[in-house]
Amino acid sequence: MQAVPVLPHRIRWSAATAAFQVEGARAEGGRGRSVWDAWVDTPGKVVDGATAEPGPDSYHRWTDDVALAAGLGLDRYRFSISWTRVQPDGSGAPCAAGLDYYSRLVDDLLAAGVTPFPTLYHWDLPIPLHEAGGWTVRDIVGRFTDYADTVAQRLGDRVENWYTVNEPAMTTLEGYAIGSLAPGESLLFDALPTAHHQLLAHGRAARVLREHGAQAVGVANNHTRVLGLRDTAADAAAVAAYDAIHNRVFADPILTGAYPDLPGIDVSMPIVDGDMEVISTPPDFYAINFYNPTTVTAPGPDNPIPFEIVPTPGAPVTGFGDEWPIVPSALRDLLVGFVERYPNLPPVVISENGASFPEPDTCDGPIDDADRIAYLDGHLRAIGEAMSAGVRVDEYTVWSLLDNFEWADGYTQRFGLAHVDFASARRTPKSSYDWYRRVIAQNRA
C-alpha cells in the first residue's frame, strides 16, 4: 500500500460542501430564491440542463453527511448556510425552518465529535437583493451584516469558527465581470467595486460574529499562482496584472489595509472613511482556496485586457481540461510567496483543495479514483514543503465531501470523496475517502 503524506507539523483536517450544491429542497421550509435559482431556470445556462434538485438532498439527509464526516475522522466540517433559507428575501425576519435545519446540523456534528465550520455566504445571493443592485451597491453590506447577526444569534452559542464570504474573487470576476457564473453580469473592470463591498461585508460581519462569541473568523479567498507563458518583459507585465486582479485585490486590503495599484485599469474603489480599517481588522487566520495555477501571456494589440489566459504547457489536467491544470508545486510556491509578500501573515487555512475527474453516474461499490488521490497527495506534499520552508499552515480542507451540483457544469463534474447517485441521493465512499481517512489517522499517530 502506497505511503500517505506525513506533514512536518500537526494540523486540523476538514472537508467541505456548499448549501446550493448539496441541499436540494429549494421549495421547502420557506426558502427564497437566489441568483443561482434564476441561473438554473434559464435554458442553456447549465451545460447538461440540470438543476440542483434533488442533488445529494442534504436538507433531508444531513445525518448521512455527518456520518461521512465522522467516519473520516475529520476535525472540522465546512458547510455553508443558505442566505435564502434564513432570510428568504435577503432581509427582515428570519425563517424558523431554515435556522432549525442548521441548528440540527450543528448539534449532530458536535455530538459526532466534528467541529462545525460554517460559511455565511457561498454565492447564493437572494433575488430581491440582486434586483436592488447586489454586490455593486453599498447597501448590501448592511443587509449582510444583519444576516450575520441573525445567524449568530441562533448558532453562536455552539459555533466558534466561521467563514464569512467564499471566493469573492470568483463572484467579482466570473459573476460580475465576464458573466460565466451567476448573476451573469458582464461589467468587465467596472465589476471591481463588488470586491470592495464583499470585503467590507466580511469585515463588518466578522465584528458581529465576534460579539456573539466567535473565536476565529476569516474570508475564504480563491488564489492562484500566476505563471508567464514566456520569459519576456511583456509576459511579466501580464503576470503582474493578473496577479493584482485575481489575488492582490482580495488579499492586500485584509493583510495590508490598502488596495494594490492596477496599472492600465481606470477603476476606483468606492471607499468611505473607515472602510479599510474594518476590512483590515487583524484576521484570526487567512484562508486559501487553491485548485490550479494560471498561465498568462501578453495580449494582442486589439485586446483591452492586459493579459490573456492560456493553457499551462506540459501540465496534466482535471475533468475541466486546460482550464484546470495540475501543478502541485504551484501551491507550495504560492504559500511561500505569501509569506514573503505579507510578513504579518496569520496562520493559513487551506479552505478548499480538490479535483474533478470523469466518473460514472451510478456505482455498485467504491470507485477507484486514483487520479483524485494523486492530485490530493501531490498537493499535501506541496503543503508539507511550504511548511518546511516556514509557512504556518494550521488546517487542510478537501473539496468536496460529496459529489454535488457543480454550478454551471451541473452534474458533469464530480469532486467528491463520496460518490452520489443523483437519482437516489445514495452515497458511496470512493477509494479517495479511505485514502483521506488513512492520511488523517497517520498524521495523528
Structural features, described:
- Belongs to the glycosyl hydrolase 1 family.
- The active site is at 352 (nucleophile).
- One of its GO terms (molecular function) is beta-glucosidase activity.
- Its EC number is 3.2.1.21.
- The chain is an alpha/beta fold and 445 residues long.
- The protein is 39% helix and 16% strand.
- The protein has helices at residues 19-22, 35-40, 58-72, 83-86, 96-111, 127-131, 139-155, 168-177, 193-211, 233-256, 275-279, 328-341, 370-388, 431-444, and strands spanning 12-16, 76-80, 115-121, 161-166, 216-222, 226-228, 286-289, 294-297, 308-310, 317-318, 321-325, 348-352, 393-399, 418-421, 426-429.
- α12 packs parallel to α13.
- The longest helix is centred in the middle third of the chain and has 24 residues, at 233-256.
- The chain is globular.
Short description:
Its EC number is 3.2.1.21. This protein is of the alpha/beta class.
Characteristics:
445 residues; alpha/beta; TIM Barrel; 8-stranded parallel beta barrel; 3-stranded mixed β-sheet; 14 helices; 16% strand; globular; polysaccharide degradation; GH
- CATH homologous superfamily assignment: Glycosidases
The unreliable regions are: none
| H/E series | EHHHEHHEHHEHHEEHHEEEEEHEHEEEH
Largest sheet: 8 strands, parallel, barrel
Helix run count:
14
